[in-house]
Design a protein that fits this description.
Helix content: 40-55%
Strand order of the largest sheet: 3-2-1-4-5-6-7
Radius of gyration: 17 Å
Number of strands: 7
Strand content: 15-25%
Largest sheet: 7 strands, parallel
Structural class: alpha/beta
Order of helices and strands: EHEHEHEHEHHEHHHE
Shape: globular
Distance between the termini: 26 Å
Length: 247
């Protein structure tokens, strides 16, 4: 993949799962990493294995003042921000019909999955606009396209992320910045391991390949999306669904 010399990437939710897998993949491309997570101890522990320059930051992506001050610190530490990957996310309570969803859980899931991605982009974009270059990737989900029964909060929050991606891609199309999303089906992570088995079966039964995607597969696709080569696609949601989504 092609990246600017001394490229710097912000990755949220970097302490585990998809976020850390992306960090490992970009480290292999010698991209400098600003790694964000609420669990700073776990983040520091796993980051030691990365073969690239990095700094870690503890942040709650739903807290606007924290996001702003953290991005300000990253700009001070790295200068130009070339890449933002919004990987922080939660499923919230699952296997629950809509009339039983409680508002507190709905707010929590939307806060992290949608508002967190919005806030990170809000405060990173001015740096990218100034340099007339940037790659922003929001991690959405196939649930945001098709809806998963029993996962109202998650599905709706990821649909909101897809909607935001379409808007932002158009808004910044003439600035050298591409803003895209990726919609994985089930990826084998600790998040999935902790879900009720019937919920996982419901999702994998819909995948023609009859399996979960791997962390390595999604990290490889992400590396392309945020590379210099991906220069004429914006506002788009890339699928990674084992044949589930073909549109």
């Amino acid at each position: 993949m092609m990246f600017h010399p001394n490229s710097a990437a912000i990755i949220t939710g970097a302490a585990s799962g998809i976020g850390f897998s992306i960090a490992k993949r970009l480290a292999g491309e010698h991209v400098q990493l600003a790694l964000l997570d609420q669990n700073i101890d776990q983040l520091n522990a796993v980051a030691r294995s990365l073969n690239t320059a990095y700094k870690t930051y503890q942040v709650n992506v739903t807290d606007e003042s924290q996001v702003k001050s953290t991005v300000d610190q990253i700009v001070n530490d790295f200068g130009q921000i070339h890449i933002l990957i919004n990987s922080a996310g939660i499923t919230g309570k699952t296997n629950i019909k809509s009339h039983l969803v409680d508002s507190e859980n709905l707010d929590l899931v939307f806060g992290i999955n949608f508002k967190g991605s919005f806030l990170m982009a809000k405060y990173v974009l001015p740096n990218m606009i100034h340099h007339q270059y940037g790659r922003i990737l929001h991690i959405a989900s196939i649930a945001g396209k098709e809806g998963n029964a029993g996962m109202l909060a998650y599905s709706a929050s990821k649909a909101a992320v897809i909607g935001m991606t379409k808007v932002q891609g158009k808004e910044y199309a003439e600035t050298g910045i591409t803003i895209n999303a990726i919609a994985p089906a089930v990826i084998q992570t600790a998040l999935v391991d902790n879900m009720p088995p019937e919920q996982v079966r419901y999702m994998t039964d819909k995948i023609p390949m009859r399996r979960c995607g791997t962390l390595e597969e999604i990290a490889d696709m992400v590396a392309f999306i945020v590379s210099k080569e991906n220069s004429f696609t914006t506002g788009f949601t890339f699928d990674m669904s084992g044949g589930r989504a073909v549109y």
